[in-house]
Amino acid sequence: MAKLSVDKGKRWERAVASSISEVMPGAHVRRGNQNRDGADAPDVICPWLWVECKSGKRPNPRAALAQSIEARDKRKLKCIPTVFLKDDRKDPIVILQMDDFLRMLKKLWHTKQNQEE
């Protein structure tokens, strides 16, 4: 892989780690060990999530999500496979399976309802 692509990926991983850290103060969020094949460590280590980060001209979201699911399953973890994807010159998006999203939404909804009581 070209050095510019590698550097671009590192910058994106650092940006994702920083963004997650902002909304999860106190959580130990950091870039994963990138010396491995991707199945050993996520791109960003974060509670509850297996985070893969992809950036480029046209990154493949389904392949990235499949990589995250496969890595999570290989390690037999209960975290949510998640992809932070950034197309060149476009707003970033987050991709996860619908069931995982609905479980997260349900927890958020119940938390909000309990706070209003």
Description of the molecule:
With 117 residues, the chain is of the alpha+beta class. It contains three helices and five strands. Strands 1-2-3-4-5 form a five-stranded mixed sheet. The mean pLDDT is 91.
Q: Which key terms come to mind for this protein?
A:
117 residues, alpha+beta, five-stranded mixed beta sheet, 3 helices, globular
Largest sheet: 5 strands, mixed
Which shape, going by the Cα principal axes? Answer: globular
SS element count, helices: 3
How many E-type strands? 5
User: How are the strands of the largest sheet arranged?
Assistant: 1-2-3-4-5
Instruction: Average the pLDDT over all residues and give the rounded result.
Output: 91
Listing every helix as H and every strand as E from the N terminus to the C terminus, the arrangement reads HEEEHEEH
The level of helicity is 40-55%
What percentage of the residues does DSSP assign to strands (E)? 15-25%
Query: Spans of 5+ residues with little confidence (pLDDT < 50)?
Result: none
Distance between the termini: 54 Å
Instruction: Please identify the structural class as seen in this structure.
Output: alpha+beta
Radius of gyration: 15 Å
Q: Can you give me a brief rundown of this structure?
A:
The chain has 117 residues and is of the alpha+beta class.
Helix and strand layout, with pairings?
Blueprint: H1 3-23, E1 30-31, E2 44-46, E3 49-56, H2 61-74, E4 80-87, E5 93-95, H3 98-116
Parallel strand pairs: 3-4
Antiparallel strand pairs: 1-2, 2-3, 4-5
